[in-house]
Amino acid sequence: MSRNCPIARALKGALGKVARWRGLQPWHRSFGKIETRCFQELFFQSPAAQMLVVGETIAACNPACEVLFGAAAGGLNGKPFADLAPERQPGGMPTRAAMDPVLKRAAEKGLARTELQCRRWDGSHFWCEVTVKPTTVAGEQADLVTLWDVSVQKRTEDALRKDEARFRCFAEIIQHPAGTLKEFLGFALDRAVDLTGSRVGFLFFYDPASKTFTLNTHSSEAERECKVPVSGPVKHLDKTGIWGEAVRQRRPIIVNDFQAPNPLKRGYPEGHVHLERFMAVPVFRNSEIAAVVGLGNKLEDYGPSDIEQLQLLMEMVWNVVNRLKAEEALRRKSQELEDFFQSSLDLLCIADFEGHFVRLNPQWENVLGYRREELEGRLFFDLVHPEDIPATQAAMEHLKRQKPLLNFENRYRCKDGSYRWIEWRSQPRGNWIYAAARDITERKRMERELREANRQLEQAIERANRLAEEAAAASAAKSDFLAHMSHEIRTPLNGVLGMLQLLMVTGLDEEQQRFAQAAASSAESLLALLEDILDLSRIEAGKLRLEPEDFEIRKLLESVTIAMTHGADQKGLGLHLEVDPQMPRVLRGDPKRLRQVLTNLIGNAIKFTPAGRVRISARLQSESEAEVVVRCSVKDTGIGIPEEKIGLLFQKFTQLDSSTTRNQGGAGLGLAIAKQLCELMGGEIGVTSNVGEGSEFWFTARLGKVLETARSGESAPMRSTAESQNPGVAEGRPTLSGERIRVLVVEDNRVNREVALEMLRRLGVAADAAENGMEALYRLRERHYDLVLMDVQMPRMDGYEASMRIRTPGSGVQNPNVPIIALTAHALTSDRERCLAAGMNDYLSKPLRFSVLAETVRRWAGRSHTLPANADGERRRQASGALRRKALLARFGHDSELVSTTIEAFLSDTPCQLRALREALERQDRAEAERVAHTIKGSASYVGGEELSAVAGRIEQALHSGGCMKPEEWLAELESQYAFLLAELSSERREDAGGAETASEANSAEETAHPRAD
């Protein structure tokens, strides 16, 4: 516009007046005095925002300017120009400092432009292009300021700049020749810091399984600013603060005032990088967070564009990371394969289908002797043994069909001309064959040797089997010989001892009595030697078995001590017994074998002690819930044992003094057998000794505990009465006269028959004889007997068959339930089991003794004395009950209260057992019926109901052997025997109660004898 223009002159005049107002005089007042309306139209109607600034104050502004800044009409006039901009521009420079060079340039050149971030009246910021033109108004300097809103253009330029920076950053990252993954991530993190205008950065790997962060890398600026180590810490998610929220919330987190209080902050250690602003962005891989990138200390606030930039960058970075990981894994795998290929002890090779070696590992050189260069590219058929070429060609055809080949064997020629066996495992892949082979030459040699050894071994086994058969036959022959010899020796020995016992109870003078006792002692020694030899044979054959039962340990020790007293008295020795007061009263074990060991040790102590004493002690060594370990010792003041001889003590057929002038005899079997028995009882045996001072033999045995209140329900196994006898005790002459007992003796040996008959006669018992089983059946049909003493080995019909026929219904005998006691001289076979299976109740070992025979007759014939119903029935029942009562009192140590408790428990439990047996038989439950029959057998035996026990035992045996089930027949016989036993036991209870039992109780007891199925 020319200065001579009328509009310019008018404006100059108007502005001259304004200049004189100074200060805050509103500019619009001067407009009323402007004479030229053209200026007003230009200034106020201009689309550009314009203002006139005098000094630092806005003198006037047009409506476009007011709209641009969102101010009311006239609202900007008189305001400081500084109010239209923030104190600092983006980048941190003060606005005043940014404008000073612009004003200076405008003053020098008459016009200056710049871009400035301004602030609207509502506080929002926007970018303006600002033009400053100095002008003179009424002789005063003023600045005409024109402003254009360039925010859109600025955002576009900023986006283009960011895109350019990001693409440049992407290019640098992609082209970065990182040696390792960590180096690459460090470089990428520095680019992210530059791209967002940050100063520090951290990259943490995150493990979702353990919820832990591991610092992988940090920016170079962070390393310079941080005064504490920042490399490699591991933190749990629960212990992280604001940057952990990116994982917890699974989204980016921005904090633009990090130093302000924040409940999520956990702080950081002193010396760490000081944070002002912070941004944490999670990196996702397959919906899982793989890492978190944290950037901090940007000069201006972080915003969504920073998040977008970082997310795009990290997505690209993580693609490179995955590629680098895959390449690194591939390199590692390739290196591992190469290392394996080079170091494998197997023969590895790659071949083609034309038959050429393509690549070989060094092991081929060691096996065949060729260098690899000589083999690679060569036809391997040139090296195959001629005999193996057809098989090798067939193997190649198999591989050409892309089928793997396993365990193929052929021979290859070595460089020295020899051949070695190679075993192949080959896998075809496309045009190549990948194979692993192994030199099996040595294995082939060993296989040949093994085949030869197996051939020789088979021959040796065949010879050994023949020898074993011969040995088994010899062993069986020996066992059979010993069994028969036992019978043959015991049979005459029974006559010798029996006659001697009968002789000694006749009117002999003192000298004759001494001779008879000497003969009896010699016979007893012979019998003991026979028992030792048989025990040893059982042990060697593995047939010696323990027979557990409940027994009173103190009574056993006392009875053994009493039995040995006679021998000690003859030598003038003291014999003392000490029993631990803590020892349980009743234990479960094999009392016969325990007695055998004790008798052997005490007998030896007496034998080798010229003067002094023998002390027997038993104590509780240890105890558990179910069992105890008992330690017994026998200490003497005898001659002692030399230390070098102690190792020979427990060997078979060994005597410490084997000279012909030794003072003591013996076969040298006792201690060897005692050792075996102790080991069978779960214990051990030993000795300590000093020559001239004496010896102490000790042994331990593991015995079961017994709950005495429940003993009435246990099974009482059948015992040979001979087992409880006390050898060495002078026998008296017990009698059973007045008890009206009749016994049948079935024995084919005349001497033994006469001995048994004479003993029974002296006991006051009427007895008849039969020579075999057939004659016994005849006599039992003709007459009622209370007891049968049955020899087991007889001509025409032996005792086993005779017993089974007696028990068979329809046999015609008057009393099919008559107690049958086996008389056996056998000691090696399973006598008791055979006797039970045949229907016998007990057995006696020959030779017979007065006391044993008397106890047997009293125990069986006295308790089970049954006669046909007649006027004397009640009297006979009372006599039988009295005998039973005596036997029970003797069994339970004359404890009448314990006897009564046992009877009460039996009468209460047995009806339930009978009912359970009936139900089990009705539903064909053989196993349950066998168990209940076993329980009835044991409990009946405990209260003296031997007939009921025998019937239950036969039922148990029939069920166990799978015999035909006869429910009604069995139950009828059981209930009949129980009714009879119930009547006797009820009578005994009434006698105990002084006849106080009421009629109702008697009726109730009678009803329980026949329990109903319902």
Tell me what you see in this structure.
- The protein is of the alpha+beta class.
- Helices cover 46% and strands 19% of the residues.
- β6 (200-207) and β7 (212-218) form a beta hairpin.
- The longest helix has 64 residues, at 441-504.
- The radius of gyration is 60 Å and the shape is elongated.
- The N and C termini lie far apart (135 Å).
How many distinct helices?
29
| Beta-strand residue fraction | 15-25%
Which stretches are poorly predicted, pLDDT < 50 over at least 5 residues?
A: 1-36, 658-663, 709-733, 863-880, 995-1014
**Biggest pleated sheet:** 7 strands, mixed
DSSP strand count: 28
> Taking all residues together, what is the mean pLDDT?
76
Q: State the secondary-structure class.
A: alpha+beta
**In one word, what is the shape?**
elongated
Q: Using only CA atoms, what is the Rg?
A: 60 Å
The separation of the N and C termini measures: 135 Å
What fraction, in percent, of the residue positions are helical? 40-55%
